[in-house]
Amino acid sequence: MALHPEEIKCEVRMTGITLTGLALRHGFSPSACRKALVVPCPRVDRVIAKRIGRKLHEVWPERYDTRGRRIFTKVNSSALQSVPHRLSTQAV
Length: 92
Fold this sequence. Notes:
Blueprint: H1 5-14, H2 19-25, H3 32-36, H4 42-51, H5 56-59, H6 77-81
């Protein structure tokens, strides 16, 4: 079961640093670690997992397999068909 984002934040803080501080220490933008709580960011995910002493799949089992490889989900092709194209064939 995945950790709740608040659990991740708590575990990071218990190591003596904030998410912002951790991001800055590793050369990321100040919000990078907060963003990684909701959106996969492999480089940042690794930093967070290492900091809290867990494996990637323990923190984010929906993102990583037991070998630490990203899990990619297939995109529903019918959903893509409903997305409007940026370039229209019609003249404006």
